[in-house]
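lol ok so funny story. i was supposed to be doing the assay writeup but got distracted and ended up predicting the structure for this chain instead. priorities right. anyway since i did it might as well share w the group, maybe its usefull for someone
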Amino acid sequence: MTGAFSGPGRANQGLPKLPTPPSGWPIGSYATYQEAHRAVEHLATSEFPVEEVTIVGVDLMLVERVIGRLSWPKVLGTGALSGAWFGLFVGLLLGLFNQQQASFAPILVGLVAGVLFGLVFAAVGFATTRGRGGREIASATQLVAGRYDVLAQPRNAERGRDLLAKLAMRPSGGLG
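and the output, tada:
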């Protein structure tokens, strides 16, 4: 049986069933994931066995970027909008099974009900957390690494280092 991550090169190796540390020797280290990914793409175009390569994020950090302050109008507007989308979806489904000819009533009922439920749930959620150490800010959270190491199996590590060194010496700035 083959899957999205299996293939002839992964037949013996496969994806680990349990969390396991990566194996291999470091052949390159990059400040961003994009740079590490480009390095692996370079290895692939150089006929390197990339099925033996792993990109490892090192020095992980959880970064929360504050987008803005939450207010009642923002919370209610967002709740109404998300409720409207869900209500529209439900209304469309109801409309598909409607026995009457070309009636927009199920869609309208789903839309209105979705907006009302979205408003209520958003208001209750915001009111219960507000002022008691709760969330009064909007933010986006990401898991990022301080650096990204590219590892290769020992039998090909030296060749991989040589290929990535040539990539870094290109006059166009290496990976750009």
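Confidence is low (pLDDT under 50) at residues 1-11. The longest strand covers residues 53-69.
back to the writeup now i swear
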